[in-house]
Write a structure and sequence with these properties.
Layout: E1 3-6, E2 10-16, E3 31-37, H1 39-49, E4 55-60, H2 65-74, E5 77-83, E6 89-95, E7 101-106, H3 115-122, E8 130-134, H4 140-149, E9 153-157, H5 163-166, E10 175-179, H6 180-187, H7 193-203, E11 208-212, E12 218-221, E13 226-229, H8 242-255, H9 260-275, H10 287-293
Parallel strand pairs: 1-4, 1-8, 2-6, 4-5, 8-9, 9-10, 10-11
Antiparallel strand pairs: 2-3, 6-7, 11-12, 12-13
Helix pairs in contact: 1-8, 3-4, 6-7, 8-9, 9-10
Length: 294
């Protein structure tokens, strides 16, 4: 079984602020750092650090060469990371004194994915392989349709949730990774976690659901079982990539055949380590560290 992550690569500009900037306000930041990130790249790093060989597919601009070198350093397969003219995707991230963040995303090269590029990548994968997706690249409906035709298992993090996702056939998704906001949108407006799960399973009865609830932990559900996992309480420094860490470690547990309860616990612990450190990919722990703490 091979794992393909067809996802974004963003340069993250991270600003330390006292509080999130209000409309009309000008605020000085106490610090600024630049990291390699993007939901796609973060989740690939999480997978590799969790011990899963991963092929990353995506587009970078003329300013994105560092992604290829970093991906190689982490141990990713980089055959499907291609450079095009123009700028890479980037984010402007505010991190407040409580470690909470808000993110402004510019798609850049991530929104230049074409059907031809999708076909050239997917021809290297087959039935039973896993494809991980997030909604930060173009041609999402086409990627899902073609991956499904090949018999791949489709794992989707529907973030950010926007009109691009409305055109996707969600019935082809094998596993959803979503927070309460995304779950509410997919479920038709529900806000209660149990009702979100109930509605999503009603619409997609064969899907697996991983619902993250911030400080209230996470829930796994499918048509046969349901489990809740509390968070591991730590001092929060930066929540960037916490969800991406959880996703990577959860998939690693699925691939390794680890029971769901243990997989949830491992994923929650890995995410707690991530939020206790600054940055995105540098903050994601390796499996050895997580296992030692377990």
């Amino acid at each position: 079984m091979k794992v393909l992550n067809f996802g974004s690569l963003n340069v993250d500009y991270v600003y330390q602020v006292d509080h999130m900037v209000m409309p009309g306000e000008t605020q000085s930041s106490s610090g600024m750092e630049i990291f390699l990130g993007g939901k796609g790249f973060n989740q690939s790093v999480a997978l590799v650090k969790a011990g899963v060989p991963v092929y990353h597919a995506g587009l970078i601009g003329e300013d994105g060469t560092a992604f290829v070198e970093a991906a190689k350093d982490y141990g990713m397969h980089t055959d499907f990371i291609k450079k095009i003219d123009g700028r890479s995707g980037h984010t402007i991230i505010q991190v407040d004194k409580n470690g909470q963040n808000c993110i402004l995303l510019h798609g850049g090269s991530n929104r230049a994915v074409t059907k031809e590029f999708v076909d050239s990548v997917l021809e290297h994968f087959e039935a039973g392989d896993i494809i991980l997706l997030q909604n930060e690249v173009s041609e999402m409906p086409y990627i899902i349709d073609k991956a499904y035709e090949r018999g791949m298992q489709i794992f989707l993090n529907p973030s950010p949730y926007d009109a691009y996702l409305d055109a996707c056939d969600m019935s082809k998704v094998s596993c959803f990774f979503m927070n309460e906001i995304e779950g509410g949108l997919i479920s038709g407006g529900e806000t209660d976690p149990d009702k979100i799960i109930e509605k999503v399973l009603e619409k997609y009865p064969d899907a697996r659901i991983v619902l993250t609830l911030g400080g209230d932990g996470s829930i796994y559900a499918d048509k046969n079982e349901r489990h809740h996992q509390e968070i591991f309480k730590v001092e929060t420094v930066d929540t960037t990539a916490a969800g991406d860490t959880f996703t990577g470690y959860f998939i690693a547990g699925i691939i390794n055949g680890t029971p769901i309860k243990e997989t949830l616990r491992m994923s929650a612990l890995a995410a707690s380590i991530t939020v206790s450190r600054p940055g995105a990919t540098p903050s994601i722990p390796y499996m050895e560290e997580v296992q030692k703490m377990l």
